Amino acid sequence: MEVGDRIPDVLGIDQNGKEIKSSDYRGRKIVLYSYPKANTSGCTAEACSLEAHKAELAAAGYEIIGVSKDRQELQKKFADAQNLSFPLIADTDTTLLQALGCWGEKVACGRKTIGTIRTTYLVNEDGVIEKIFGPKEIKTKIHAEQILKYIEG
């Protein structure tokens, strides 16, 4: 997907078994971020950065939704362990990740693999992508600050 594209309506099932739809967020903006694997250092740092700045993002009109290939049970353990208060979609069949364009070939530890490409999409009130942060831009420990800096202009 690219800036100007509309995200899919059905995003998936979150860690609590709830179906998450973009239409449920109409009128609100979304920080939709994909991450490779729950409970790993980089993904934990990114999630915790977003949780720590959730109030500031909400004040700017944004809700947070995470997505990875992890099973629902692992997403739940991750959310509970890190006290995350936002939906984490368990996209085990990679339907959403592929639709977003953040599933594919990447280099990890010097070898090529297929997996989730860390990406963040800022989505407007109508479900349209306004900004994409690619994997080379994202600094996991301060990612929320990066988003807020962009939002504030």
State the main characteristics.
153 residues, alpha/beta, Glutaredoxin, 5-stranded mixed beta sheet, two-stranded antiparallel ribbon, 5 helices, 29% helix, 29% strand, globular
Q: Short summary of the structure?
A:
This protein is an alpha/beta fold and 153 residues long. The chain is 29% helix and 29% strand.
What does this structure look like?
With 153 residues, the chain is α/β, with parallel strands linked by helices. It has one domain (10-146): Glutaredoxin (3-Layer(aba) Sandwich). It contains 5 helices and 9 strands. A hairpin with a 5-residue loop joins strand 8 and strand 9. The protein is globular and about 40 Å long. The model has no long low-confidence stretch (mean pLDDT 95).
